[in-house]
Automatic annotation (TrEMBL):
Keywords: Signal. PROSITE patterns: PROKAR_LIPOPROTEIN. Coiled coil: none annotated. This is DUF4374 domain-containing protein. Residues 1-22 form the signal peptide. InterPro entries: Spondin_N (IPR009465), Spondin_N_sf (IPR038678). It comes from the Bacteria. The keyword Signal applies.
Length: 415
């Protein structure tokens, strides 16, 4: 079912998929003739399939292992581990993975019923499961199929949920899940160790999972990396594959462009708390309207322009403004997959500056909402979350999370 996130309300104004060139709202309906530069905000962040990925340890019968990951409403957890006393069977959820939240954004916790299924990788002829299985066994050119009680050779198996148990706990402040895998096969007819495994949490863009079939497709041939896991319990090829496809993504959501005089940036002051003029609404929700209304009362502010659109990866938005040689320009746009982060110019910019100004752009934390993992925080507006307030000074975003460098996310040009 398609989720309704904040950017869906703006989809109708995107002119085409590659670039969302948009006009900006001007505070002056009849501007006098003058110099009219255009500022362009380009979202250049690469699209990645997964926001987080990793591995977990092997699990003997009767034992458990755990790992943690961040996630938010709409995202799914996919994992896979080998049924070790087999030729090429593995445990994994059905695509697209384990649902982590219900439609109201409440996390699914406790033992997750029927979290995984048992799958046949289709690359080895199945022998009677047990410690005496010959590895690697006889090759075959099959496809991935679910084992429903018996395999193709007639060997019997208990339901996967009677062997492989998944339970979840959730830390709301960090939007952090702890997943515990319990091997409950001990004493059953299908007692088996589990190999180490791999997990991913898919990114979301425009309310859709970027990757809805992370590891395999039913009735299709398995990839080399999953085959290594299913046949040998070798985690590394699949772990490496998904690591290359893992990274933070974001939209740019809303923007404000302010032409002013004097020596004080009217949008923000680094090291000071948010002045409560409306920057928080832009940094938290991509809404520049309140900030515009406040700045219209500031004498040094000459003109204000706003954008209320969303630039997804590969898209852009731009605004033409009027300025004179003795004036300066300041700008801000929301890091859309955050709780309260925004891009803005660090040093002062002459309003008639020409060329790329990305090197003069910084990523800032407004200090008005508790930060969570970008693109995986259930309190973030993109996921329909509720702000967890904080009261800190505006600061540069640090290295708590693996956020790309500014020039790996945005390109800002004045021409």
């Amino acid at each position: 079912m398609k989720k309704k996130y904040f950017f869906s309300a703006f989809a109708a104004v995107l002119l085409f998929a590659g670039a969302a060139f948009t006009s900006c709202d001007d505070d002056d309906d009849n501007p006098a003739p003058g110099t009219r530069p255009t500022i362009k905000f380009e979202n250049v962040i690469p699209t990645k399939n997964y926001v987080q990925s990793g591995s977990f340890a092997a699990v003997a019968p009767g034992a458990t292992t755990s790992f943690t990951f961040h996630a938010a409403k709409g995202q799914r957890l996919m994992l896979a581990a080998m049924y070790s006393y087999s030729n090429d069977l593995f445990f994994a959820p059905e695509n697209p993975g384990i649902e982590l939240f219900n439609d109201s954004g409440v996390p699914n916790t406790g033992i997750i019923a029927d979290a995984v299924k048992l799958w046949d990788n289709g690359t080895r002829v199945n022998e009677q499961p047990g410690p005496g299985v010959n590895h690697p066994g006889v090759a075959q050119a099959g496809v991935v199929t679910e084992v429903k009680g018996t395999d193709a050779a007639g060997h019997t198996y208990l339901a996967a949920s009677s062997l492989f148990q998944v339970s979840l706990t959730f830390d709301a402040a960090q939007s952090l899940f702890t997943c515990t895998i319990s091997n409950i096969s001990n004493g059953t007819a299908n007692e088996t160790p589990f190999s180490g495994g791999v997990f991913v949490v898919s990114n979301l863009l425009d309310g859709k999972l970027v990757m809805d079939k992370p590891f395999f497709s039913v009735d299709q041939k398995s990839g080399t990396e999953l085959t290594k896991l299913a046949e040998d319990g070798n985690v590394e090829p699949l772990k490496s594959l998904v690591a290359d496809q893992t990274g933070i993504v974001t939209t740019l959501h809303g923007a404000i462009v302010v032409v002013y005089t004097g020596n004080t940036n009217p949008i923000y002051q680094l090291g000071q708390k948010d002045a409560q003029l409306g920057l928080a609404a832009l940094a938290q929700r991509g809404d520049p309207a309140q900030l515009k209304a406040s700045l219209e009362k500031v004498p040094q502010v000459r003109k204000i322009y706003t954008l209320t659109d969303t630039a997804q990866p590969g898209e852009s938005m731009e605004c033409t403004y009027e300025a004179a040689a003795n004036e300066k320009v300041a700008f801000a746009t929301m890091f859309g997959y955050s709780n309260d982060w925004f891009f803005a110019n660090g040093p002062e910019l002459n309003a008639l500056t020409k060329g790329e100004v990305t090197s003069k752009t910084v990523l800032l934390d407004d200090g008005t909402a508790v930060s969570q993992y970008p693109g995986a925080g259930n309190a973030q507006f993109i996921f329909g979350g509720t702000v967890m307030p904080e009261d800190k000074a505006i600061s540069a975003v640090g290295d708590t999370y693996p956020v790309p460098a500014v020039d790996g996310i945005v390109k800002i040009t004045i021409y």
